[in-house]
Specification:
Layout (H helix, E strand, L loop, with lengths): L3 E6 L2 H12 L16 E4 L4 E6 L4 H6 L5 E5 H7 L4 E5 L5 E7 L4 H5 L4 E5 L2 H11 L4 E5 L6 H5 L4 E6 L3 H5 L3 E9 L1 E5 L1 H6 L1 H18 L1
Parallel strand pairs: 1-3, 1-4, 7-8, 7-9
Antiparallel strand pairs: 2-3, 4-11, 5-11, 6-9, 6-10
Length: 215
Amino acid sequence: MRYLTIALGKGRLAWQTMQLFEKIGITCEEMKDKSSRKLIFVNEEQKLRFFLAKGPDVPTYVEYGAADIGIVGRDTILEENRKLFEVLDLGYGRCNMCVCGPESAKEYLQHAQLIRVATKYPNIAKDYFYNKKHQTVEIIKLNGSIELAPIVGLSEVIVDIVETGSTLRENGLQVLEEVCSLSARMVVNPVSMKMENPRISSLVMQLKAAISERV
């Protein structure tokens, strides 16, 4: 039996995923050693391999078959738009992708005016404004501190992930429109889904049962 390789987005997502996997009897003790500098972690008995990657890289590893399965946020899946199967909502990491800005920016959205939109997610923003709202906008790609953009006049609004909204409130901004809801998802390489269907389907079914018990 060959190894099934699972790519995990680094950070809280990875640890929440391993906690969920432990509920269905999948463990990887090597990953608990925080001093380890290993890149690949193996469960020899269950023929599973795990590795940690930056979130935006996970869909790439899965699309090219370097990983059979990936665990990553839906925001990354939508933004990367890779050829892979999204098979399961894992239910954690819930938040929303939103259009945010000062209250005065509501008018620009209501009247579909030409505005500038700052975001780390240009593809998601483009799809929302062009295909759903049918509003022409100029997208400005930023890599961090997106909330700064409308404050200093770089853009009228931003498109960003909102969890609690506290950063927005502290900076005089608010959610103006919700683009989509987000959470951690399991994605699978299409070839792996065909070649390893019994193992992957069994894994998905077990995880579904564990998630429903948790709710």
